[in-house]
UniProtKB/TrEMBL annotation:
This is Acyl-protein synthase. Residues 87-397 form the Acyl-protein synthetase LuxE domain. InterPro entries: ANL_N_sf, LuxE. One of its GO terms (biological process) is bioluminescence. The lineage of its organism: Bacteria, Bacillati, Actinomycetota, Actinomycetes, Kitasatosporales. One of its GO terms (molecular function) is long-chain fatty acid--protein ligase activity. It comes from the Bacteria. Pfam families: LuxE.
């Protein structure tokens, strides 16, 4: 388990580095993608109006043409669908889409190798694995949208350094898992006073250290800085169980502490507990209030971030739309009905994941109840009986070595 203490100069440097998420970006071909550029420069993630809808549709027309020209598979799908040219948000559901599993079996890039700025995978060992090369625009736009969302939800704190417990992988230059990359980026949204990682780098892999996590929480509870716990929920649940087994009394972490989980339970679904029960356990054992316990949803293929609001809703941001499809017919269904989740967003130029059907079941709900003006969705879990190996699967399997 790693520990890093930070000087005043280092804290100042960290705050300056946060600006990298909010700086200007340019699409790879401005002449082809002006509306994509415009849409992805909207800094309010929860803007909802007719002009935003019109801009989204125009951006989707551009990105469809982009991938149809550069990716043979999507080009064939697009032509077979009659080269659709939507003129309303409702028609976005009629555009061709690709199932997420196809990216695990085929390299579906829309860019040349020399345009790849970052390669990420969906898991570290064995099984079905997505490996994607992102261009600078795609990964940069995703990071900027993540930062805008975190800011809009009030989860950035530039004033107070935080002690971080990262329930994920200790950095390793050989590690390319998307979740490892994303979790460590979450440490940028408040200055780092110290950081501990639950999955230790052994030199030949990673090893889960629950006792080290318990020790870190005990240490952090005795300090003044808020605590930020980020990572896989299965690992956090295991740490809380270990605290109970050891007879550690409930802690009260400092005011302003935060939990951001992501990745689901995957291979440890048999140990999973309900979301409400999970939050109640965190409140009881760590003293963090429910509105400061948030979950995140996303994938390496579709790396646009979805983060719960205080009411625990996954809102669809201005840069995306969510479609739910019937599990038998694959036809779109309306609000409040269960089906496969499909996400549509024109930001990604690296691969044709701008219209992607997920393996997760979910429900889309209309705006309301929390003050945010965009629709929101809930995730019910993975459809089918065959397990896809994801970052969370790989991490959860390390729970067996305790």
């Amino acid at each position: 388990m790693t520990t890093a203490s930070t000087s005043d100069a280092e804290l100042a440097r960290q705050l300056d580095s946060l600006a990298k998420y909010f700086g200007p970006l340019q699409v790879p071909e401005p002449g082809e993608l002006p509306r994509v550029q415009e849409l992805c420069s909207v800094s309010d993630p929860f803007r909802a109006d007719a002009a935003a809808d019109e801009l989204f549709v125009a951006a989707m027309r551009e990105i469809n043409a982009w991938h149809a020209l550069r990716n043979p598979l999507f080009g064939a799908l697009w032509k077979e669908a009659g080269a659709p040219d939507p003129d309303s948000v409702e028609q976005v559901a009629e555009l061709p889409y690709i199932h997420v599993n196809l990216f695990k079996r085929h390299a579906l890039s829309s860019i040349e190798d020399d345009a790849v700025a970052l390669r990420l995978t969906s898991s570290g060992t064995g099984g079905e694995k997505t490996e994607i090369g992102f261009d600078a625009w795609s990964i940069g736009a995703a990071q900027r949208m993540d930062a805008w969302t975190v800011k809009a939800l009030g989860l950035i704190d530039v004033e107070r350094p935080a002690n971080y417990l990262v329930l994920g992988y200790e950095p390793d230059p050989r590690l390319t898992m998307g979740a490892a990359h994303g979790l460590n980026e979450l440490c940028d949204f408040a200055p780092v006073a110290s950081v501990r990682h639950a999955l230790r780098n052994t030199g030949v892999g990673h090893e889960f250290d629950p006792m080290g996590c318990v020790d870190a929480l005990l240490e952090f509870a005795a300090r003044e800085e808020p605590v930020r716990i980020v990572g896989f929920p299965a690992l956090l649940h295991s740490v809380l169980e270990r605290m109970g087994t050891m007879g550690v009394p409930p802690l009260r972490l400092p005011e302003g502490s935060l939990v951001l989980t992501g990745g689901g339970w995957k291979s440890h679904a048999d140990r999973a507990i309900g979301r409400v029960e999970f939050r109640e356990g965190i409140e009881r054992q760590l003293g963090i209030p429910g509105e400061r316990i948030r979950d995140c949803y996303g994938s390496v293929e579709h790396c646009l971030p979805y983060i719960e609001c205080a009411a625990h809703h996954f809102h669809v941001p201005v840069w995306a739309r969510c479609v739910v499809r019937d599990v038998r017919t694959l036809e779109p269904v309306g609000y409040d009905e269960v089906g496969y989740l499909q996400f549509v967003s024109p930001f990604i130029t690296a691969l044709p994941a701008h219209s992607i059907l997920m393996a997760d079941l979910g429900t889309l709900h209309p705006p309301g109840g929390c003050g945010i003006a965009t629709p929101w969705f809930e995730v019910h879990g993975r459809a089918g009986v065959r397990r896809n190996r994801t970052c969370a699967v790989a991490a959860a399997e390390l729970l067996e070595v305790r």
